[in-house]
Amino acid sequence: EVQLGESGGGLVQPGGSLRLSCAASGFTFDTYGMNWVRQAPGKGLEWVSYITSRSSSIYYADSVKGRFTVSRDNAKNSLYLQMNSLRAEDTAVYHCAREGYGSGRILDYWGQGTLVTVSS
Amino acid sequence: QSVLTQPPSVSAAPGQKVAISCSGSSSNIGSNFVSWYQQLPGTAPKLLIYENNKRPSGIPDRFSGSKSGTSATLGITGLQTGDEADYYCGTWDTSLSAGVFGGGTKLTVL
């Protein structure tokens, strides 16, 4: 059974940093690309970042480019999101999602998410 | 404001059918496959449709997808109260080199 579990969320002051983790199990992690998607309270989904299976290609939403860094450790079956210079508008539940095989952005499995709150 | 445009809400009676539209441009829907996601209240999103019209295993054939030009549509037939959820379309935008979602559509089964 595919399982994705996020951790590392919490309350942080504006300008601060936080590192999110996503632990994967139930599939061969190093053969799948991975995404981060966030959802602000009461709002819709916003794609944040995508990293290929071997980290050869990485993409970011303009809203986080230069502040967030995605990485992965295939030996640990883990995905990470380093978030710096956090702003109030970064407040959201952050989900990791597996990129399914096929064409287009196919997010076939999602974690339950971890809440990040940016506030003073 | 989302790159893809969806109606904020749709509603229909149990047993009826509904269509949810998703409008984009040549750089996203017009040149890439579309996926659809269902988010039940308080849960993580779930993949419903991928590559415009394919259903993952376990998704009933009451759910269907189509694409024409720069628009896509999610169809749901035989509506059930358990279908009440938010529905999102998503794809890749080639110009932005970024994933994009619609703003979401809240389905109410009256």
Structural descriptors:
heterodimer; A: 120 residues; mainly beta; 7-stranded mixed β-sheet; 4-stranded antiparallel β-sheet; B: 110 residues; 6-stranded mixed β-sheet; 3-stranded antiparallel β-sheet; 0% helix
Describe the structure in your own words.
The complex is a heterodimer of chains A (120) and B (110). Chain A is an all-beta fold and 120 residues long. Chain A is built from no helices and eleven strands. Chain A has strands at 3-7, 10-12, 18-25, 34-39, 45-51, 58-60, 68-73, 78-83, 92-99, 107-110, 114-118. In chain A, the strands form two sheets. In chain A, strands 2, 4, 5, 6, 9, 10 and 11 form a seven-stranded mixed sheet that branches. The radius of gyration of chain B is 13 Å and the shape is globular. In chain B, β7 (85-93) and β8 (98-101) form a beta hairpin. In chain B, strands 1, 3, 4, 7, 8 and 9 form a six-stranded mixed sheet that branches. Chain B has 110 residues and is an all-beta fold. Chain B is 0% helix and 45% strand. Chain B has strands at residues 9-12, 18-23, 35-39, 46-49, 63-68, 71-76, 85-93, 98-101, 105-109. Chain B starts with 8 loop residues before the first strand and ends with a strand. The chains are: A mainly beta (120), B mainly beta (110). At the A-B interface, β5 and β10 of A face β3, β7 and β8 of B.
Strands, helices and their partners?
The complex is a heterodimer of chains A (120) and B (110).
Chain A: E1 3-7, E2 10-12, E3 18-25, E4 34-39, E5 45-51, E6 58-60, E7 68-73, E8 78-83, E9 92-99, E10 107-110, E11 114-118
Parallel strand pairs in A: 2-11
Antiparallel strand pairs in A: 1-3, 3-8, 4-5, 4-9, 5-6, 7-8, 9-10, 9-11
Chain B: E1 9-12, E2 18-23, E3 35-39, E4 46-49, E5 63-68, E6 71-76, E7 85-93, E8 98-101, E9 105-109
Parallel strand pairs in B: 1-9
Antiparallel strand pairs in B: 2-6, 3-4, 3-7, 5-6, 7-8, 7-9
